[in-house]
């Protein structure tokens, strides 16, 4: 409960800070007598996309320069850039060397939206009408410092999503190892579990009794390690994504896609002849089989697809809604300063409310993904439930 209150308070403070800084900047423009200049319009869509997209740094805050309105100071945590170029070898440096895309470094350049617009590269399209250079991607540059996509490079950099996944794995291993050491000492066996071990054991018991046993029958012990790993791994990443400035890994389709593929592989390796017999020879009249068999085959692939989309959509939607409410404060302030001040408490409260819901959704989505995986695995070995009951 204390963690939830702390996170809610952090959202409230950040929201008020952004609101206050926006009003101060606007007031400063009026104080300097710059009434004739139109303030830059807020691109809420760009802000939201930048927040939920992957990047080569953890970005926390951007502060406009008081003396130069075209300059912005970024508070961020740079991440390692690891690039291999055939004939040149490896280049390793921090992403801060790019200066947020303004400079090239070691023969490479990070594509940013500002650089693409100022250089005119944003207008270059391929045969299909798609941009040749992609924002957020690193390209090799020629002697003049211009990006050259014909130079082959392999980007092995640690982005914020990859870094956060590694941190989640480290935390998961630390929790498991810590609990294992406690059990080896007899705590939780000869005596009652204490502290965090007690909370962890309660969750493990819940997954075992309410997810694994009902869906997997007598084979639950075989799949329990997989289900527990999936549950805690998703939960940790879901909660990480709620920390301001962190990456929303669970809201990345590549992350959920990989989890769905892993579950799909486990489901396929759990099948038996009864399962495939039901797929290719369903117990229906002969004239219905040509229709039902393709549907059953399609159902094999829709199961992991449902896991992928459900987790991705729910975790992404919450972040978009919160950012939308915060953006509305600046949109209202652009129309009228008093309107921005008047509506900011309402939008901040709505953002905090959605944030609290996101904490709940983080647990629910971890449970749903784990439970559906157990259901699909149980369906893969048909007859297993009946045999267990007999």
- How many discrete domains? 2
Report the total helices: 11
Intertermini distance: 44 Å
Q: In oligomeric terms, what are we looking at?
A: single chain
Could you characterize what this model shows?
By secondary structure, the protein is mainly α. The chain folds into two domains: 80-157, no CATH class; 160-389, no CATH class. The protein is 61% helix and 9% strand. It is built from eleven helices and seven strands. It has helices spanning 2-31, 44-52, 113-119, 160-184, 195-216, 220-240, 253-269, 273-280, 289-335, 337-380, 384-389; strands at residues 57-64, 72-78, 80-85, 89-94, 108-110, 138-140, 154-155. The strands form three sheets. It has a three-stranded antiparallel sheet, with no helix packed on it. The longest helix has 47 residues, at 289-335. It is globular, with a radius of gyration of 26 Å. The model is unreliable at 1-39 and 384-390 (pLDDT under 50).
Would you kindly provide a brief summary of this structure?
This protein has helices spanning 2-31, 44-52, 113-119, 160-184, 195-216, 220-240, 253-269, 273-280, 289-335, 337-380, 384-389, and strands at 57-64, 72-78, 80-85, 89-94, 108-110, 138-140, 154-155. It has 390 residues and is mostly helical. Residues 1-39 and 384-390 have low confidence and may be disordered.
